[in-house]
Amino acid sequence: MVRSPGPRGGPTVRTRILTALLALTALALGFAGATAYLLTHEQVDDRIDADLTESADELRTLAASGVDPVTGDPFSSAEEVVVTAIQLDVPARHEGVIGLRTGQRPLVSQQAVEVHLQDDAEFVAAVTPLLHSDQVVLRTIRTATTDYRALVAPVSALPEASGTVPASSEPAALVLAYDRVAEHAETQAVFRSYALVALAALVVTGVVGWLLAGRLLRPIRMLARTAQQIGESDLSARIPESGNDDLTHLTQAFNGMLDRLEGSFESQRRLLDDVGHELRTPLTIVRGHLELMDTADPADARETRDLALDELDRMNRLVDDLVTLATVGQPDFVRPAPVELGRLTDDVLDKARPLGERTWLVDSRTDARTMADAQRLTQAWLQLAANAVKFSEPGSVIAIGSRTNHDGSRVRLWVRDEGVGIAPDDVSRIFDRFARGEHDGARRDGSGLGLAIVSAIAEGHGGEVTVASTPGQGSTFTVVIPVLPVPDAGPDANPVAGPVAGPDRPVAPTARTVASPRTAPTPDLPPAPRAVPPAGRTPRPRPDAAPEEGPTP
User: Fold this and answer.
1) Single GO cellular component annotation (predicted)?
2) From 485's CA, which of 173, 269, 334, 476 has a CA 20 to 30 Å away?
3) Domain co-membership, 47 together with 133
């Protein structure tokens, strides 16, 4: 169960979600019920007032007619008007009717009346003073028995009665009243039923919400269990991904984080293993020679000093290469900027010439521009050139080149040599750290990190490294990277020589480059180059050292 952070834990997320859900549901049901109750309560009071007002209008009409509709005789007194009104009135449910006279008992209806107003002495005492009122009175009267909504209509207060009822007659008044408590009791019964239904709905919501919250929080519980299972030596646990909701995105983000952590820890362990393995040998050599050095022999001391300095230089280069590989994956490992690939090709050739006495050529030169890190590409290119020098004979051809594919979406930067080539068994591992190929039964000098750095630079640009090699004939290493659009620098930018993008063309001999002889093959783009280094796979060496034209994968 996922618990909230804190030294003592606390309610589970599932409980908090359910509590919030039930609180909101109860608040919504309560607010809806209370609002409906108040509106219904007000509607009942409005209906009572409308009914009483209608009865008052009927009394006015009766008084204005001046004739008893039952006997056809004219009214001779106010009391006759009240008696006739009582006889004609049909009391509604929870309604009562009486007639008031001065100093006499109230007049009562002979019909079936549910509310007997004359039996409530407190009510009669409250309405009697209104007998002499000069207007029709509508008010609420509360007694020990119940609450009434009463209408008191004195006949003398009706303008319609003047001229039809003798002014000398004794005053009389019609009294109609509703039992408000009884009227509202029905509404209250309905809302008591509503409260029970709402309570049942709240219980059902709680049960369903508990099950639903558990189902929705299952990935989080799995995330917590997975996080607890992850140890320093095992980062392989992952959470199954299903669906396309927020929790699935959280799961994907968590799995991605685990992938990065696993890669980081693996890189860290590999770096420590590599450092421990590779630095142990030169340290042992230095220590052994220092222990055996004859301090009294100047020649022996000088030789030991030279050997120690040479080993320290090698360790310094090794540390520099390891630092470079340690920065792989960091945001600033590759810093893209506009690069003119043709000019970069010329610059790399100029920098590569001092690496060895070789016949340096340019196979092809593209005029495309792209967003890339020129320094990193130069580093990778020169590393490939240095390897070509190491595994070739003086005077042999080493050629570099650059070319885009047919649609200009990718560019290939290669180094071709006529060296010893690579054994098929070594091709699949030459880009691993500290991997060194054997030639003629011996290993060449080097840290074994150069090609790993080249591969890291290519991957940092979103590309890859391919190799085609034939033992005894030479090798061609190719860095393939995407061509990214260069933002418009504006009218003040320096003009770029040549087209921004277009088909590649052979480079004419210039003062800076040496053109390939007519017999030298010019590498084209291979139709299906093999990416290096995927572990456990062996590429197919091509019979020639140069790739052929074809689509870029």
Assistant:
1) plasma membrane
2) 476
3) yes
